[in-house]
Design goal:
431 residues; alpha/beta; Spore Coat Polysaccharide Biosynthesis Protein SpsA, Chain A; seven-stranded mixed beta sheet; three-stranded antiparallel beta sheet; globular; binds guanosine-5'-triphosphate; binds magnesium ion; Nucleotide-diphossugar_trans
Amino acid sequence: MLLSLRKRKVLYILLAIFTIFITSDLLSRHKIIDHSKLISDDWSIESLTNKYDFSYLKSFGKSSTFNDEELKSTNEELNKNGYILKPQNVQFKFLNNIDKKGSREEIIDGDNSRYQQLMKLEIGKPQDASLINAPEDVSKYNHANATILILVTNEEITKIGQSIRKFEKSFNSKFQYPYTFLNDQPFNDRFKQRIKKYTGNAPVEFVTIPKELWDKPTNIDEEKESKAMEIMYQHDVAYAKKGSYHNMCRFYSMNFYKVPELAKYKYYWRIEPNVHFYTDIQYDVFKYMESTGKIYGFTISLYDIEESIKTLWPETLHFLNQDDNYKLINPNGGFQFLLEDLQNPNKNKVAGYSTCHFWSNFEIGDMDFYRSKPYDSWVNYLDSTGKFYYERWGDAPIHSIGVSLFADKSKVHWFRDIGYLHDPYYNYGNI
Ligand SMILES: Nc1nc2c(ncn2[C@@H]2O[C@H](COP(=O)(O)OP(=O)(O)OP(=O)(O)O)[C@@H](O)[C@H]2O)c(=O)[nH]1
Ligand SMILES: [Mg+2]
């Protein structure tokens, strides 16, 4: 078909605008960045020491990365236990108890085959407690002191609705634990009315979060913050520039359990928009937590984006090495989970944190643990550094490090039998 000259001109102009728009978007997101250079520059000791004070790390040396032999002590106690917990002398070391050997690829193969073997085992319900099944008459049921906890915006009504539909079918229609909906803005009537269609007969409470628990603290230097956000954005750190995401991470790390309406509860089960529950959970998971004294339950664990938590572990070591803070650590903590450095050594760039964490979009936890002195004084110190904003510390690594340092590892439970999906990862469960 032949177009008139005029029409062709208009078409070319439109095409040019479209091309400029698409390319500039791509360039701004990926292309103009020499990613490898940025990362290696940024990870050099020089560049990090210019930005952060690492003087408290005794073995900190002149080499080019943090994941160096220099950081690995030859101390006998450290080699035997994997930790030293003494005043102003707290150190950790990965012990390699299952004797991983070979190249990184061989170690991954070995880990994979161990994982495959584990996944072939039949999944049963937990065996370490007598489980309480769903009551015949839920109105007479003696519930555990627990709530289903949902932080959500008004705009996410459809997405959270689908999560709750699955959750009710899988668990809560049988037990009717109360829901607590949290939002930094007041929930609107449309949200409140629609949500009740999903929650069935369970009690529901809608809470506006007090500003002092949600808002960015006033002492955050906004110029420093926006520079840091730009660098993280250039390193593809997800949500680096989204201020509300930083608020959310800080809130879930250190403030949600201080919301006045949650003071009456001990346990919470966290749920998010757009997640799926696949299995028919017949026992009361909160009663299971209660009778075993467990404080934290998860379904999925994974590595973190190391650029988002660059100095979380050094800052943690700094805190533990102050005053008598070594006493806060539980000697039977899950330290090794935090230290593994063979399967994915690139992750341990900053003074040895594996970045392994429990994926906190699913959590069944005991809020009294967060309210206790060890966790509380540690997160207060973390907050004083301002790095929920100057970095992008997520609530998942914070909860995971907290639980692994300050709780007995036998109090952490993998709910392997609960089928769960938060895109793109899932826990198979007992389908
Ligand atoms: N009220 C409120 N809720 C928020 C805000 N930002 C995040 N949330 C909630 O906090 C939880 C975590 O946020 P997500 O956006 O799912 O974060 P994520 O799981 O790291 O990222 P995705 O992979 O995109 O799901 C969800 O339940 C959100 O609904 C906010 O600004 N206000
Ligand atoms: Mg999410």
